[in-house]
Amino acid sequence: MNDDDKSKCRATDVDDEDSGEYEQSTFDKIISTLLCRGDYAKQKLEARPVSFFQLFRFATFSDKILVAIGIALAILCGIGQPMVVLIAGRLTNILLVTKDFYNNETFWHDAYFNVYIYAAVGVTMVIITIMQYICFKNASLNIARNVRSEYMRSLLRQNVGWFDSQKSGTITSQLNENIDKIKDGVGDKIGLILRGVTMFVTCIVIGFIFEWRITLVMIGMGPASAVLMSSMARLTDRASVKQLEAVGHAGAIIEESIMNHKTVAACNGQETMIDRYSKALARGRKYALQIYSFAGLFDGLFFLIMQNYLPIIALQIGLITRLYECTSGAVYIDGVDVRKFNIGWLRNIVGVVQQEPLLFNGTVIENIRLGNPDLTDAEIVDVCKTANAHDFIEKLNKGYETLIDAGGVQLSGGQKQRIAIARAIARNPRILLLDEATSALDAESEIVVQNALKKASKGRTTIVIAHRLSTLRDANQIIVFNHGKVAEIGTHKELAEKDGGIYAALVQSQKFKEEEESGKKGSTYTAEASMGSTTIVIAHRLSTLRDANQIIVFNHGKVAEIEEEESGKKGSTYTAEVDETLASFERTTSTQSGQRKVSVSSISSSHFARCSFMESSRISWPIQQVIIEEREDTEPGILVDEKQSRKKHREGLWQLYTKSGNFGKLIAATVLSAIRGMELPAHALIFKFSFNGFASDDENVMMRELLNVFIAYIALGFACLIALFSATFSFGWAAESIVDSLRLRALRNVLYQDASYFDDPHRSHAIIVTRISTDAPNIKAALDSRMMQIVNNFAAIIAMMIAALIFSWEIGLLGTACLILLVIGQYFTANRMQHCNDEAINNDLTGQLAIEIVEQVRTIQLLTREEHFHVEYDEQLRNALKYQKKSGPYEALLFAVTSSFMYFSDMASYALGISLIYHGLATPANVFTAAVSITTGGWALIMVSGCLNTFILAAPASDSLFRIINAKSTTGDIDGGQRPHIDGKVEFKNVRFSYPTRPNQSILNRLSFTALKGQTVAIVGPSGSGKSTVISLLERFYQFSDGHVKVDGNLIPGISLRYLREHMALVGQEPVLFHGTIAENILLGTCGKTMEDGYDTEVGERGAQLSGGQKQRIAIARALIRNPKILLLDEATSALDADSERVTVYINNLFWNVISSVTCKYFLCISL
Q1: pLDDT of residue 956
Q2: Measuring CA to CA, how many Å separate 1097 from each of 1089, 1092, 1106, 1139?
Q3: Spatial distance between the Cα atoms of 1137 and 601, rounded to a whole number of angstroms
């Protein structure tokens, strides 16, 4: 091996950055220093920082033009805002200096000139603000869309090794929350900052022009404020980082819980997952409360100062396709290191069929076309016929246009596998990689597909990973692995005849040549497993039927024939099936030439390799009665591609406040916030004292009045410190408690739903995850500090209206009318905004698609359809953007009118006040106080509108989340019902069932059978025949429509569902593990440790760090450790090697005398 071969290869994308430490940009350092955050300026960063200006590299030229226009307009707004102070100052001087007001024409003209200026500036500000808001809004939405698009492009470019080290829930959380923060940062927040900075500079200039000494003193307060801001930022940033980590962990938990809903339900693991989620939320809540505490304390202090003034085999495919990079050595194709190939080109010439096929949300034909977008419909039909998928596809409700849900969860395993094979064949690859490609097929389908795969393999290199040694007979070369190294190489004949060889031992264990030995071995296991009990088997594996005293043949769910003992009745379905299968199998085992095929098998112990799945004798039992279900390729539950009409009962925020609990916290927070709202009325009153003091001709009286003003401000500062801290913390506490409670209630209700709940296209697993993840943060706007702002400002508005009426009822009535008109305008504008936001939420499918892409990125990369999914995601982003922009004009109008309201309110108040003073109907002091009260009320209303945009989002989010919380499960109360003693007797009698989405298509038709305590019923049939439906009904994932299902004579709908599942255990064909350690997944274990960290080994998200067989063994251990009375096995040993399966069978035998078992099997076992 040369030096290049020994070079280390990173498991990261080729575009990834080198690790190292980085410094902040110069711009960021300046900002950090100005904010007294010198520690930030010196801080070393693990990743290369992105400067503020670099965010705009995702902006198009038109976006940059919009931002430039927005910046110019924001500066104009910042200059125009202080004009209200200048105009008010001019009017105040006129009121203070003029001594005779009655019929004073000079006073009249001078005063009204300023009123006209108010009107002109107000109209100008409205126009400028609307244009500025729309510019920044549209630019930020466009930039965020581009960032999301590039983020997804980068995700699709990463290799699988990178994804194995990440949590998909965290990735999607970053995609949503972090990019939303970027959108805020490059949007109107820029306008607010620029306007604020411009206002600050303009006010400083005005201050120096009018009184430089006072201005210098006021500037001296800046450093004190900056120190407070710096201290608050230091403390809150630490808590914010930890809170984000906890929120990301919680997001990962909720995603894996809901996406694997059936596994959680079957294990009665709802409370475990809820408890994990609750603990993650509690950690986040702890840090959030710290943030609220710091914010309330430092805001109060600021106010006070201012007022004072993978496994071996699977790894081979990963290395060849460069899903992973090798750590040393190299992989060659035609003598060229694969690392020198373009990844896209490399994956285009390689076709992969995996053991666990993954399909995507879309129609059948769209899934197959992912293999080759250039195929015509006729060519797709041809490849489906080759994969033996055409017949069952034609029987779907819409044929090739039938919609299948994300992950293909509504198709049986065999149906998904055949579509995946068709997708691989469609690529016409030069290298074909088959990782247990036929593991989910029934015998007849497997024979046809195996033959098709042999034809497809002609002229191309084929690498086969197989449990079934029968599939390796025709391989030109068989490579036996042992502990990651090549142990043996040769043909089947050479290796089988090698004395003491690993492969020879494997052949012997599977009885590869001697059919009769299968029966003997089966009898051995039969004796161990049955322990003299009666067994009922529904099977395709004919070897499991040879000891049956009676065979009952089913046809369309009804008994068609009864075969006695030898099952040799001429012309019977059973005999015909045996003859046909044997003949077909003989045809497929004929030697194929002219092809280059390499088969790989793994060794999980020093003695045994992966076992042949064709060998059923390892798990066969003595059979007194057997039922065979005739093949019937009906599919068990495809989603109907039609929108179901749903009446949406909207209660908005009312239900949030009345049905969320925590009333004590809400009431306390509301009262404290209302008290804090008295700050503005107190300001108005103090202004009156100031006006009276300055109006006095006696200097001593003026100083005495101003001293009282000084004392009043000190008292007001301390009062606001206490009130602000209390209100901020109280609302923060209430918000975190309520939102976390709603998240838990939503997760709890979803996990306790039956499977039919997710059959609705509007309630797919991904959509539910997205809704809970996005709705909960949006609801916070109606509960946290933004709600505090709304409460205290509304309290201030009411108080200011009362004050205005007291000092001048005429101005009070006029000002109140103006405020009411503004509120009405806000209400109707907000309604339109809410309608637009509802529309945007309902049409935004980006979250669902992002989850699907992240979950199935391996399949996407193997298909080299990264660009296809990126384009699809980009289209969804564009569609969502179209709806998001609809609310922009309404938001702009609302923001512009409210922020400019003071100009018009001052204009109206002073116009009327001047007239009253001119005619001697009011005093200047009362007019001034009333006008200031209305103006201050207008400021309060502006503060409300600043929170209104996000507050409005809370209403549809509340409706959406409560729809999830209030959804009723058809299974009812999981704890309600009887709790009878359960021994394990199971009875199906005249059971009929159709999936809710296809009520006219019968899946089970008057099905009847009985399994006594300790008996085994093996259910076998072709893919899509409804075998797993029996398990779904026993687990009560679905409710049968007629007949009854009993356990120990008790109807299962009358038994407590939790209690029933406590006595059941399910091991599925596709094992599901959750993030955590092995011990956390199985709770206890009895098998030996095989990994470095033993039972503390992390399995990774979805068990990504383990092989399929390892995951399956842990799933089996998880089932057996519960000591169930009823054990449900759906191809439970499909991913195990011979040694592991023997150990598993032995363990199972220890339980068989107390366990009733329903086992789904696909294969006709023909031992050679």
Answers
A1: 79
A2: 10, 7, 10, 22
A3: 10
Q: Which two tokens mark 1078?
A: 């092995």
Greater model confidence, 1096 or 394: 394
- Alpha-helical runs (H) found in 309-341: 312-320
Q: Using CA atoms, how far apart are residues 879 and 874, in angstroms rounded to an integer?
A: 9
Amino acid 599: pLDDT:
40
Q: Indicate the residue type of 343.
A: I
Q: Are 1147 and 1088 in contact (CB under 8 A)?
A: no
Q: What is the pLDDT of residues 946-985, one digit of tens each?
A: 666 667 777 778 888 888 888 887 777 777 888 888 887 8
Residue 168 structure tokens: 């998909």
- Cα distance between residue 130 and residue 10, in whole Å: 51
774-778, 893-897, 1048-1052 — which is least confidently predicted?
A: 774-778
Query: CA nearest 885: which of 842, 957, 846, 836?
Result: 836
Phi, psi torsion values for 272, nearest 5 degrees: -65, -45
Most confident of 106-120, 173-187, 884-898: 106-120
Spatial CA neighbour of 1012 closest among 819, 839, 1156: 1156
Segment 244-298, tens digit of pLDDT: 677 777 777 777 778 777 777 777 777 778 888 888 877 777 777 666 665 555 4
> Where are the alpha helices (H) located in 843-997, listed in sequence order?
846-855, 857-862, 866-884, 888-899, 901-918, 924-966
Angle 449-451-452 from CA coordinates, rounded to 5°? 60
As beta bridge partners, residue 1010 has: 987
CA 491 to chain centroid = 48
d(CA 364, CA 896): 50
Whether 1135 shows a pLDDT value over 50: the answer reads no
1046-1084 exposure pattern, b = at least 16 Cβ within 10 A, e = fewer: bbbebebeebbbbbbbebbbbbbbbbbbbbeebebbbee
Phi, psi of 697 (to 5 degrees): -85, -15
On whether the CB atoms of residues 402 and 396 are closer than 8 A, the answer is yes
Per-residue pLDDT tens over the stretch 709-718 = 778 777 877 7
Nearest to 578 by CA among 560, 557, 555, 553: 553
Asked if residue 43 lies in contact with residue 237, where contact means CB atoms within 8 angstroms, the answer is no
- Matching residue, tokens 């993650």: 280
Q: What are phi and psi of 566, to 5 degrees?
A: -80, -10
| CB 1068 within 8 Å of CB 261 | no
Only one residue has tokens 């339109």, namely 832
Rg of the chain taking only CA atoms, in angstroms: 37
pLDDT value of position 629: 35
Cβ neighbours of residue 659 under 8 Å, at least 6 residues apart? 962
8 A C-beta contact, residue 1060 and residue 1047:
yes
Q: Are 1031 and 1066 contacting, i.e. CB atoms less than 8 angstroms apart?
A: yes
Q: Could you tell me how many helices (H) and strands (E) the chain has, helices first?
A: 42, 22
pTM of model > 0.85? no
Is the model's pLDDT at 205 over the cut of 80?
Answer: yes
**10 Å Cβ neighbour count for 51?**
13
User: d(Cα 617, Cα 528) in Å, to the nearest integer?
Assistant: 12
Q: For 41-50, 832-841, 1022-1031, 1062-1071, which range has the lowest pLDDT when averaged over its residues? A: 41-50
Return all residues near 931 (Cβ < 8 A) that are at least 6 apart: 811, 815, 906, 909, 910, 913
Question: Is 770 in contact with 730 (CB distance < 8 Å)?
Answer: no
Instruction: Supply the pLDDT for residue 516.
Output: 41
Strands (DSSP E) found in 535-677? 536-538, 550-555, 558-564, 596-601, 625-629
pLDDT of residue 639: 37
Distances (CA, A) of 603 to 430, 439, 484, 1006, 1105: 28, 18, 8, 45, 18
CB of 954 closer than 8 Å to CB of 779: yes
Structure-derived torsion over alpha carbons of residues 264, 268, 272, 277, reported in degrees to the nearest 10: 40
